[in-house]
């Protein structure tokens, strides 16, 4: 099991959270996605280490970006 944390910028509502969760959840190996709308923090559990580019691409597909 592996845990990754990223910060997503641009989310403003629960629909944003759902979109980000859905796209990241579609990455092979992801077992759970926990998004905090207030902070933008996204904690991702997966069966293997995730490629940061895959996470970034998924976030961008949802219409947001990975920030610092």
Automatic annotation (TrEMBL):
A Pfam family recorded for this sequence: HMA
Alphabetical list of InterPro entries matching this protein: Cu-bd (IPR000428), Heavy-metal-associated_CS (IPR017969), HMA_Cu_ion-bd (IPR006122), HMA_dom (IPR006121), HMA_dom_sf (IPR036163)
Superkingdom of source: Bacteria
Keywords carried by this UniProt record: Copper, Metal-binding
HMA domain residues: 2-67
Protein name: Heavy-metal-associated domain-containing protein
Species: Rhodococcus tibetensis
